[in-house]
Write a structure and sequence with these properties.
Length: 380
Amino acid sequence: MSRITYFTDMEKSVVTANFVKRGWTSATSDEDWNFYWANTQTCRSLFSAESSYRLGDYQLINHFPNHYELTRKDLMVKNIKRYKREQDKERETRERSQFNLEFVPVTFVLPADYNLFAEEYRRCPTCTWIMKPCGRSQGSGIFLVTKLSRIKKWSNEGNSASTYGRHAVQASSVGSGNPQQPAPPRESYVISKYIESPLLIGGKKFDLRLYVLVTSFRPIRAYLFRRGFCRFCSAKYDRSTHQMDNMLVHLTNVAIQKQGDDYNPHHGGKWSVEDLLFYVASHRGSDAAELLWQEICWVIGHSLKAVAPMMLSDPHCFECYGYDIIIDANLKPWLIEVNASPSLSTTTNTDHFLKLSLIDAILNVVLPPAVVIGLLYNER
């Protein structure tokens, strides 16, 4: 009876250590595998229409074919908006349903929804908005705006660059025989109302990173890893206009915060979920802490229901989603985004233990002993 074979294109110690602990054997790129921990680009190629690869009964991979329905910012918002419209039409009147279905800040996709955004802006000209590129991560390309003129400038500059790129012939290609290369398509952004009154601890803004394992979308089977954590800004929160461009005040991404002078490498600016709930219970009461956690679970559940009709629920696939949630001063949780490949890099000993435990828990769910024995006997 042979051993489980694994392949990975992500050399993260918290992943491979769990494979080695189980006695699994590493496969080469030319060998067959039972378990593939892959990056999203690999999965996109593997499941593409051009690929002839088909997963066997004895194989598992860590992404669904169209995971981006939840993890790409514009598609997540589109699916949740559609889901809310459907629920409104059905007039479901469960307790607190209307409250809980408003769990994503008002958001538009630019440049496609510019006119709709402009109407909303005129209704609330004093609001702050946050712009994020749809396909990037780790805080890249994010900025805050308060004036419509800045959005117009962004839009005009983008349209100009796109137009010139499509129609202008590069001097270096004239007469060289090289075909003209079209410019890449314009990058889409989402623009959302900024949560200007977040819950602050020690005067600093934070968000929650929670891990959710999904093994099926039909029916939905999801598992919430209780050892999530809070990510704190290293600078105190300041809503004044002169701090609008200071991302150390507004963005909690570790990649951003590590650049600050006040970043603490020993604890990484992180708290456990247990610490957060204890803090809320001690300041707002135990009932408030319990309700907050229920609302967070409710948000996660509805987000999965929103995308379930769109998902290709392949039985050979599972996904560990990284949920980013902000809690406002009224203890209302807001879903900010969902990551298909939440970072498995570790910055502290606590971080390393948490992510090592996360991968161990995932493997225990997707490949329990009975399934492992089945895989091995199928190979005989």
